[in-house]
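Standup notes
- DV: blocked on the single-chain target, sequence here:
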Amino acid sequence: MFTEAVIESLDQEGRGIAHVEGKVAFIEDALPGEAVVYSAYRKKPNYELGRAERILRSSSIRVAPRCRYFGTCGGCSMQHLDAKAQVAAKQRILEGNLRHIGKVKAEMLLPAIYGPAWEYRQRARLAVRYVAKKSGVLVGFHEKRSSFVADMQSCEILPRRISELLNPLRELIASLSLRDRIPQLELAIGEAADVLVLRVLDELNDGDRESLKTFADRHRVQFYLQPGRPESAYAFYPENTPGLYYTLPEFNLTMAFHPTEYTQVNHAMNRMLVRRAMQLLDPGPRERIADLFCGLGNFTLPAARSGAVVTGIEGDPELARRATENAARNGLLETADFHVANLFEVTEASLASYGRFDKMLLDPPRDGAVAVVKALGGSVPSRIVYISCNPATLARDAAVLVHTKNYQLKAAGVVNMFPHTSHIESIALFEQAK
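- DV (later): unblocked, structure below
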């Protein structure tokens, strides 16, 4: 059944929002101001989900998707929207979440941070599936709303040299004896190495090993094998390489990482995000600063480079160990130290045990940092910089800071870390009210 609708706005997933016969309709591939004909694929009493089948009146911000797999592949959801309009839409979603969920409003909207819209992705997790009926292998992102692997032979958001490897990788894996025992391939790009991590559920035979070595030499990549959990991944071939690292030249930092450890997927945008975070945090010599959910020190070490004394706290012991190694590599062990703690269960007493901090930086995962902000008590930091990958949990935590902890939301803005996707990265500045 087909229904006509006029699109009013975009939701957090990049879908058009319309009201049809008293229900809210969320319509894929539809843009604000457009009149569309859509078909519903899920109906509920108060809402329905659908996809645009025909555009009756097109928006001026609609563009032709660059990727031929757009609409099938689930990797991108906004390629039909002009790149600058994507950023504006994300900014409106951030503001809407702060207003409706947090009941707060930023005193100042920060200029959006955005960069190259294509070939930006330095990290990716690709599904691998052997299709016995076709005697072939698929390597790519999952199809939209499906567990099937998209039959893709290129990807516009991966660096071109990696995109051009998709077909050779399909052929390589299809030739291996355990082609039906490799469910995943993870990509990790550093400034001196391209690493491909194969998730292997069985042992390679001698022929498989030679095939991987030949492929690595021909295409100048390094293979890791992952037999179990992410930390089980180990270098297979070649073993002696410069290793994975990225740099933050503005702070004279080199950050080493393991291919399955968390890092930002977009190194260029990460540099701009770190710069913005340091501008807002404004770390001063000998100030005591806490960096919570610190990872491998992406924000800890730039703050320490300024002369501040920075304590990084991270829940993953391996990341905390890597952060300590990065501090040593960059000569910052005297001003940066790292601790392991579960920040989702932090209490006022456990947080206070680290001492008083002048300022704080938060960079939590999608679940946010509600336990941390609730645990703030006594002598609280004068300034908090909050980096978020989920505007809803940022808004929830902002409500705690503003309405119960006497902070003011001084500024907030988006960082387009993932162009053409609905993912919203943002940064906010809170200051204690005078």
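- Follow-up: The mean pLDDT is 96.
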